[in-house]
Amino acid sequence: MKQKKDVQQGTLALMVLKTIEVLGPLHGYGIARRIEQISRDLLCVNQGTLYPVLLRLEQEGAVASDWGPSENNRRARFYRLTRAGQKLLETEKRDWEQTIAIIARFFEIKAEDLS
After folding, report:
1. In total, how many domains does the chain have?
2. What is the pLDDT of residues 82-105, one digit of tens each?
3. What's 82's domain CATH number?
4. What is the largest CA-CA distance in the chain?
5. pLDDT given for residue 1 in this prediction
6. Strand partners, 81
7. Across-strand partners of 27?
8. Range of the domain at 92
9. Which residues contact 26 (CB under 8 A, 6 or more apart)?
10. Nearest to 19 by CA among 71, 66, 78, 96
11. Helix or strand or coil: residue 57?
12. What is the pTM assigned to this prediction?
């Protein structure tokens, strides 16, 4: 059985934004489950970590929320991406791609490359 890992600090907001971009408005529990599903259950999204991120993203204007009925007809807050959120997602994606490329260089380097 796979052991789930907690989401690394600084990556949850990016995953939330991308999940909402792809799937449209979702409530917090739905976002958490989708992130876990997309990671093939390798990540564990803690509700105590998710909701402060959603609140921060909403305060920054990256997401907006509306109340509505969930799948089981309970009242839930649904989060959607705003135009500012789309721009933030593009910036964050570009920054992560650059970071990944830099780290990849360290895995490829050999001692003789530095002489």
Report:
1. 1
2. 999 999 999 999 999 999 999 999
3. 1.10.10.10
4. 65
5. 52
6. 63
7. 78
8. 5-114
9. 19, 20, 34, 78, 79
10. 78
11. helix
12. 0.85
